[in-house]
């Protein structure tokens, strides 16, 4: 009985409303024209080879239940103290750093918005672990309200001296822009525009003679940029533009210029802060230096190229896709290959480039998605009696940073990618 209630409450939203309502990229830049609804992820025949089908729906539902269960009373998600909300103490391991609280909250909100849930959702369920009745509308509303409560006069969701300002503010801005695009609510539009303004004001400048706009870094107006933070911030601005907010084209041009500068076009590899680093691994000694190196930056570079240039004939995109095809998701804790961050951006990059809906052949995307499903479905915690049911372990390459909250949100977002970005503004070939 409980399973059917949850499936009816949450699953129906994933099957139908998510595909139609996820207007982040369904809305055109004017904010008033709407393209055709996305195919519903419940139809495995229409979505053959996608990351979302009837096998992954229960996984998406379960990860949303876990996130809802571990939301703080004030609406946030705490990377370090999420276990304070555990129904059964000691069952949910994997603490992250408290400095990522705003970003983790943004990721969790994006997971609900990506499944079509807003503060207007009618879905609710009785949590099997905590026995609480949880209303999804309250989860989303409270999360967005927490972000708005953190927003300062400059429009930033975190103070500029936060060491990871770029990640936290960029991800939170993306969440608020998606909420604005989905609901058209004035309060979210106002908050999103202020956040965008802060993001624009915090953009770095290049090191060349003209000091033109470039990308973003950990803190605002840095003297250099990095591809990881730039990826989140660029996607947030594209989302903002799709929701009808004011975004400077120069800002997106700057992001594109930075990506060009750090890309080795001969092979599609991308450097962290400069081209000479293309293909090199970013390591935190004693934390993740034993993990396998993946072309994460190439995937992020592909996303920025596709979203800002809309040129699917760009040969660098093809080279990047070949890199990803040669290193698909593979769950291997012993071999240290687990990397939710890479899997999320790789899924997004291939959806933008290789999806048949945008003229791609779909073969590399299909192969990637099959590996993604094999890696994630077999290793999601699946025990309704345990508090960690629906989550993923955070012992991956970056789990020490965002903890179990970010790991679970990113894994779920990878499955949601197909219908969240179904109509992304990447030009036809």
Total domain units:
1
- String of helices and strands: HHHEEHHHHHEEHHHHH
* Tally of separate helices: 13
According to CATH, the fold-level topology is Glycosyltransferase
End-to-end separation in angstroms reads 48 Å
Outline the biggest β-sheet.
2 strands, antiparallel
- Which structural category do the helix and sheet elements fall into? mainly alpha
Shape: globular
Uncertain runs with pLDDT below 50, 5 residues or more? 1-48, 423-429
Reading side by side through the largest sheet, how are the strands ordered? 1-2
- Which percent bin holds the helix content? 40-55%
| Gyration radius from CA atoms, angstroms | 20 Å
**pLDDT averaged residue by residue:** 86
> CATH top level?
Mainly Alpha
- What percentage of the residues does DSSP assign to strands (E)? under 5%
Number of extended strands: 4
Q: What is the CATH architecture assignment?
A: Alpha/alpha barrel
Question: Could you write a compact summary of the structure shown?
Answer:
The protein is built from 13 helices and 4 strands.
Descriptive report:
Helix 2 crosses helix 13, helix 3 packs parallel to helix 13 and helix 5 packs parallel to helix 7. The protein has one domain: Glycosyltransferase, CATH 1.50.10. It starts with a helix and ends in a 9-residue tail after the last helix. By secondary structure, the protein is an all-alpha fold. The protein is 48% helix and 2% strand.
Keywords:
Glycosyltransferase, 48% helix, disordered N terminus, 4 strands, two-stranded antiparallel ribbon, globular, 429 residues, mainly alpha
């Amino acid at each position: 009985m409980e399973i059917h209630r949850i499936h009816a409450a949450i699953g129906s939203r994933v099957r139908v409303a998510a595909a139609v309502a996820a207007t982040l990229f369904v809305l055109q830049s004017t904010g008033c024209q709407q393209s055709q609804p996305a195919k519903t992820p419940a139809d495995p025949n229409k979505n053959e080879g996608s990351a979302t089908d009837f096998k992954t729906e229960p996984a998406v539902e379960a990860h949303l239940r876990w996130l809802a269960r571990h939301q703080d009373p004030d609406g946030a998600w705490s990377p370090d103290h999420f276990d304070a909300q555990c129904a059964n103490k000691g069952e949910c391991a994997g603490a992250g750093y408290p400095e990522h609280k705003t970003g983790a909250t943004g990721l969790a909100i994006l997971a609900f918005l990506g499944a079509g849930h807003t503060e207007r959702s009618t879905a609710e369920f009785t949590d099997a672990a905590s026995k609480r009745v949880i209303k999804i509308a309250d989860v989303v509303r409270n999360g967005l309200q927490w972000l708005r409560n953190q927003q300062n006069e400059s429009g930033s969701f975190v103070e500029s001296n936060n060491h990871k300002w770029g990640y936290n503010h960029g991800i939170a801005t993306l969440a608020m822009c998606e909420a604005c695009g989905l609901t058209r609510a004035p309060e979210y539009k106002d908050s999103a525009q202020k956040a965008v303004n802060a993001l624009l004001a915090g953009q770095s400048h290049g090191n060349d003679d003209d000091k033109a706009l470039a990308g973003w870094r950990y803190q605002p107006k840095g003297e250099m940029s990095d591809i990881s933070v730039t990826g989140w911030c660029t996607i947030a601005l594209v989302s903002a533009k799709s929701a009808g907010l004011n975004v400077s084209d120069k800002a997106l041009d700057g992001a594109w210029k930075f990506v060009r500068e750090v890309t080795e076009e001969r092979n599609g590899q991308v450097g962290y802060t400069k081209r000479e680093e293309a293909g090199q691994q970013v390591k935190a000694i004693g934390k993740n230096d034993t993990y396998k190196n993946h072309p994460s930056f190439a995937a992020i570079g592909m996303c920025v190229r596709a979203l800002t240039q809309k040129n699917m004939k760009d040969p660098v995109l093809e080279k990047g896709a070949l890199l990803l095809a040669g290193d698909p998701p593979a769950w291997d804790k012993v071999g240290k290959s687990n990397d939710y961050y890479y899997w999320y951006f790789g899924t997004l990059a291939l959806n933008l480039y290789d999806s048949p809906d945008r003229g791609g052949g779909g073969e590399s995307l299909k192969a990637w998605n099959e590996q993604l499903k094999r890696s994630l479905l077999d290793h999601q915690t699946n025990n309704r009696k345990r508090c960690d049911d629906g989550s993923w372990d955070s012992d991956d390459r970056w789990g020490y940073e965002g903890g179990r909250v970010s790991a679970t949100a990113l894994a779920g977002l990878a499955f949601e990618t197909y219908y969240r970005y179904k109509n992304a503004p990447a030009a036809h070939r």
